[in-house]
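User: Hi! I'm working on a homework problem where we have to compare a predicted structure to a textbook description. Could you give me the structure for the chain below?
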Amino acid sequence: MSRLSTSVRIADYPLIILADVPALPTSALGQIKSAVRKGAGLLVIAGEQVTGGNLAAMFADGGRGPLPIELAPPIDLAADAEPVGLTLRIPLVPALSSFEAPTLTEALSAAGWRTLRPVAAVQGAAAQVWADFARGGAALVANRYGRGRVVYFGGTADRKGGEFPLSPAFVPFFQQLAFYLLHGADPGSAQAGQPLDWPGDEASPTLVYPDGTSEPAEAMITEDTITGEKRVVLPAADRAGIYALRVTGRDNLPRRLRRAVTVPADESDPAMLQATALADDFLPEGIRAISPDEPMQAALHAARTRAELWPLGLVLLMALVATELVLVWLFAPRQVDADALLQRAMRL
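Assistant: Happy to help. Predicted C-alpha cells:
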C-alpha cells in the first residue's frame, strides 16, 4: 500500500477498483476521493478482509463520503454450506439494463456467495440500493460523490467467497457496472458481432472504436426509404468495449453518442462451449481447473511432470517399434527360389 501512495498517480485513472481492501494509506485515500470528486468512478468489492469499521473509516465521512453506508454483521459460511443468492430490485436501473434478458437474470439469481458483507443502512439522498441478498441486507449500493460515481458490491469477485466467477452473469455484471461508473447513463449495450446504429442527422460523424482508433462515418449513413430517417449503421461490432459516435450538434458543440458492446454469451459461459470448440481452442491434454485450496506450486509441478513425461513415452514407443521390426527381419521365414538353387548345383 505504501508503493501505491508514492509511485502511482491515482488521478490518472478514470476507474478505480478496490477488491477486498481492508485499509489504505491516508495519502492514497485522499487521492482516491479527490479523483472521484473530479469525475472518476470507484467500485468497492467486498471480501473476507472487509469490515464495517474499516470501510466506514475510509469512505463514510459521517454520511458525507463516497460510501455513506453501514454494514451489517459479516457472513462467512463454511465451504459445504448453502450459498446465499442475490436479487435485483425491480424496476431495473438503466445501468443494469442488460439483465432484462431472462438468461442473465436467472444466472445472476443462481449465483451464490459464502462470503458476504451486506449493507444494513444507507445514508445520503443520492445513495440507491440496486440489489439485495436473499438472507437480508443490501448487496449493491450506488452513490454520487462530486462529479463521480461510486458502487459498493457486498459479494466477492473470487472463488474463495463463492462460485460467481464461473457464472455466465459474471462478465456482464461487472461490465455494466464499469460502464456506469465511467459514463453514467446506460450507453445501450449489444453483444459482439451484432450491428450498432446511431441517429444520422448530426454533422461530421466520426466513429471511435474501443481501441481509440477512429474513421469518418459518412459512408455508414443509411436513409429509410419510407420515413426518410437517417441512421449511422455499423454492420457488425466485432470487438467488445465502448463505441462512440463523435458528432457536432445543432448548437455547434461536440457530442459523443456511446454504445456498449459485451462479449457473446458463449465466450463468458463455460457451459455453452461445445466439445468441438474446446478441441479447436485448447491443447489435446485438456484443461484441469485448479481448486482454490490447491497450492500453486503443486499444480505447476504436476503440469511440468506431465510435460516432461510425454516425450520420454514417445521415445520408448519408437524404441519398441524398432525392436519389433528387427526381430521380424531376423526370424521371419524367407522365400526360397528352388530353380536358382538347382541351376547352381548343375554348374557344380
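For your comparison, note the following. Residues 271-279 have pLDDT under 50 and may be disordered. The first strand starts at residue 15 and ends at 19. Good luck with the assignment!
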